[in-house]
Amino acid sequence: MSLMTIQVYLVDAYTLYAASALAATSILRSVFGAFVPLAGGPLYENLGLGWGNSTLGFVALGLIPVPFLFMRYGEAIRTSPRYQPRL
After folding, report:
1. Which residues contact 13 (CB under 8 A, 6 or more apart)?
2. pTM for the full model?
3. How confident is the model at residue 78 (pLDDT cuts 50, 70, 90)?
């Protein structure tokens, strides 16, 4: 569900470059999907279950401000002349 909202935001924000933005998102998602599971084994072997899960929780806590930053600066990103189509 959250992926769909990200894709809608990218299409609205980068109108002329929407296909490129969606392609970059797809590639990034595929790279994370390929390499994050490979890091899971060593993470839990080195840190154990307690600190391994805590580390993932801390990463999630660190990402909490991201949606609020998009709410705050989203309009500036969308109206940036760098990504405006030139007609």
Report:
1. 21, 74, 77, 78, 83
2. 0.64
3. confident
- Cα angle 7, 11, 77 (rounded to 5 degrees) comes to 105
What's the angle, vertex CA 11, arms to CA 37 and CA 56, rounded to 5?
25
Angle between helices 2-13 and 18-62 (to 10 degrees): 130
pLDDT of 64 reads 95
- Give residue 33's pLDDT band: very low, low, confident or very high (50, 70, 90): very high
The tokens of 25 are what? 């998102």
Instruction: State the average pLDDT for the chain.
Output: 88
Radius of gyration of the chain (CA): 17
**CA distance readout (Å), 69 to 4, 16, 30, 44:** 19, 23, 25, 31
In the Cβ-directed half-sphere of 49, how many Cα atoms lie within 13 Å? Answer: 0
Q: Are 83 and 13 in contact (CB under 8 A)?
A: yes
